[in-house]
Amino acid sequence: MFKKILIANRGEIAVRIMRTCRVLGIKTVAVYSEPDANAMHTQLADEAVSVGEASPLESYLVIDKIIAAAKETGADAIHPGYGFLSENPVFAETCEKNGIVFIGPSADSMRLMGDKVSARQIVTKAGAPVAPGMNSAGADVSAFKKLASEVGYPVLIKASAGGGGKGMRLVHAEAELEDALEAAQREARNAFADDRVFLEKFIVQPRHIEFQIIGDKSGNVTHLFERECSIQRRHQKIIEETPSPAVSEELREKMGESAILIAKAGGYYSTGTVEFLLDKDDKYYFLEMNTRLQVEHPITELVTGLDLVSEQIRIAAGENLSPEVLNATQRGHAFECRIYAEDAENKFFPSSGTLMRYVEPCGPGVRVDSGVRENDIVGIDYDPILSKLITFGANREESRLRMIDALERYTILGLKTSMHYMLDILQKSEFISGEIHTGFIEEVMSENGTETGDLSDSKLVSAAALAAVALESGTRFADTSANEDGFSVPTPWQSGSGWRIGEAE
After folding, report:
1. Closest among 374, 365, 382, 385 to 296, alpha carbons compared
2. What are the pLDDT digits (tens) for 471-489?
């Protein structure tokens, strides 16, 4: 087993990995940029090394600096978390070349499964279902038009190296296709330095179902059941649950077998996810594979009783899958809400400021994975996620009600968050009945075409005033902004693209 692990990440995922390492008796090393010098993950680690300035391009994404920090501190392994370098095959190879174990899959698996076109080729060859479309990238407009006509509109143009909705265009008719193709190529080139795109049939109102995969270096692969990830904004998941209310035992077995088949075809070990789109007729199609630990892994941990970070570490150390993993069963139901520092009333722009008051909910069936504390300054340099709120219940309704209660008891003062918006979603009749799909936000949570939530009780209230009222009256739930006009100074977040670090989903 490893003696010391460097976590090449920040925020809540770095803290979450450190907690498992502590249980395993493994020392930890944090890396930090200038704004993170006093961050929670920096202070919880046994050692911390500065890796540069605020920009990830000057710090968390600089491979040489991360490797140098590992060597300086004597770390024998690196855990990348998610985002940043977690799906970078060059980083994995560089670790190995320097005698440092990369806690994740092989670089070859990352390359094969991280590229959407090569992944489609592998999945097709393995005999698993894929949506009708191209198995190679192209640029010839006539070829796109011909295939679109064959599979039928609407179709999606997607970036081969893409994720998070970048380089993606929905096309409803041939007249739109040429402009959409050029726009997708341009966006893909700017986002990924790779303008390769391909076309596939658009599945109308699908569910997004992913299977948690886990494999060891001896070739053993299994799945740890599915997660429902259909509640999304701009192709980004915001609420996840397990099990899916739409997946029967029979369908779970079929989809699970396909997920294992795909993982084995890609020579995969460590944890990862195989993602599918599920249509109204229970037909499913491969979407992509994420070759890392997922943001939403805690809900799988709650229903299986496993620690997925611990399993990752053991696999990286050369251990085979344990009997607990191979014989895992599912019990109960779990939800996760991603708590972002963002303003739902202002096009979901991230909100910055000081956490004047920060109190996490607790109690039976409530878990909070966070990377912040009271008095922390939340800036604009990184992904705006503050924490993940996870609840567990004997059934879906118990877990849902527990989530509502936990959100109402979660106190965050000093900036705006997405919690009111989450509460609104959780109480929609369609959500309660489980009638959800990837277009739920646009279809159900829209008024006059604008995504919104019932946030009236947080309007035009200054942080100082609300903090005073809350502390005096004992108010349990408040959510406000540090500056009343949202952004008094232009920031990079005003692009409104919906981008999230590492969430290529």
Report:
1. 385
2. 333 333 333 333 333 333 3
Is domain 4-103 in CATH 3.40.50.20, yes or no?
A: yes
Distance between CA 281 and CA 277 in Å, rounded? 11
| Sequence ranges of the domains in the chain | 4-103, 106-127+203-331, 132-201, 339-495
Instruction: Determine how β-strand 333-340 pairs with β-strand 385-393.
Output: antiparallel
pTM, entire model: 0.86
Q: Which position has the token pair 């944890």?
A: 271
Whether the predicted pLDDT of 44 surpasses 80: yes
Q: Which of 129-138, 248-257, 493-502 has the lowest mean pLDDT?
A: 493-502
Residues 197/171, Cβ–Cβ less than 8 Å: no
The answer to whether domain 106-127+203-331 and domain 339-495 are alike in fold is yes
The proportion of the chain whose per-residue pLDDT surpasses 70, expressed as a percent, equals 88
Per-residue confidence band for 307, with pLDDT thresholds at 50, 70 and 90:
very high
What is the Cα–Cα distance from 385 to 11, expressed in whole angstroms?
8
Q: What is the mean pLDDT of residues 119-146?
A: 90
- What is the spatial distance between Cα 178 and Cα 169, in angstroms, rounded to a whole number? 11
Domain 106-127+203-331 indexed as CATH 2.40.30.10: no
pLDDT tens digits, 446-464 = 743 345 444 333 332 333 3
User: Counting beta carbons within 10 angstroms of the beta carbon of residue 397, is it exposed (0 to 12), middle (13 to 18) or buried (19 or more)?
Assistant: exposed
Position 350 confidence tier, pLDDT thresholds 50, 70, 90: confident
The CA–CA distances, whole Å, from 69 to 32, 100, 416 equal 10, 12, 35
pLDDT of amino acid 293: 96
Confidence of residue 164 (pLDDT cuts 50, 70, 90): low
Tell me phi and psi for residue 470, to 5 degrees.
-65, -45
pLDDT score, position 167 = 87
Q: Are 486 and 343 in contact (CB under 8 A)?
A: yes
| Residue owning tokens 């809350």 | 470
Residue 494 per-residue DSSP state: G
Tell me how far apart the alpha carbons of residues 37 and 27 are, in angstroms, rounded to a whole number. 19
Amino acid 419 reads M
* Domain 339-495 indexed as CATH 3.40.50.620: no
Distance between CA atoms of 283 and 277, rounded to whole angstroms?
A: 8
Report the CATH architecture of 132-201. Answer: 2-Layer Sandwich (3.30)
Active-site residue (options: 120, 292, 314, 338):
292
Q: What pLDDT sits at residue 483?
A: 36
Token couple for 129: 């279902």
* Rounded alpha-carbon distances, angstroms, from residue 173 to 136, 145, 169, 203: 22, 10, 12, 15
Q: Annotated catalytic, 252? A: no
Spatial distance between the Cα atoms of 96 and 77, rounded to a whole number of angstroms: 9
